[in-house]
């Protein structure tokens, strides 16, 4: 199916090239074995306030590069808004795929970045497993709560949602 260029562009974030929230809203189906993950650049406002929005944009682009380098082609990455991102790990989600290790690899990649004109920064991550018959908005909320727990307990960490 051919999607018009204008329609495709309306589903992509112009800064990062990732899918945007409109793309998330337009997705129709979610398989039962998926993991919803929220990622948020720590103290991003201070990067913008201290170094300016151009450097903030470079930090977001650097983060996006790190994210893209550490996910699989089957996964979906969205720029949710500002410095917050949603990642959906799809396909072959089972006990053999260690979701925590995938997310920890992303966290370590961000932490290790050492770019000349961008200050060092970290990322906090929260995630939850898709449960059968759970509404998508509930999964997003649970991943967001896990992210909040990462932020509340020190930032620069990965937290799984627990009831």
Characterize the structure shown:
- There is one protein chain.
- The chain has 163 residues and is an alpha/beta fold.
- It has a single domain (28-160), classed as Alpha-Beta Plaits.
- Helix content is 42%, strand content 19%.
- The protein is built from six helices and six strands, in the order αβαβααββαβαβ.
- The protein has helices at residues 5-10, 21-26, 44-51, 53-69, 99-112, 136-152; strands at 19-20, 35-41, 76-81, 84-89, 123-129, 158-160.
- A six-stranded mixed β-sheet has the order 1-3-4-2-5-6.
- α6 (136-152) links the parallel β5 (123-129) and β6.
- α3 packs across α4.
- The chain is globular.
- It starts with a helix and ends with a strand.
- The model has no long low-confidence stretch (mean pLDDT 89).
Give the arrangement of secondary structure elements.
Blueprint: H1 5-10, E1 19-20, H2 21-26, E2 35-41, H3 44-51, H4 53-69, E3 76-81, E4 84-89, H5 99-112, E5 123-129, H6 136-152, E6 158-160
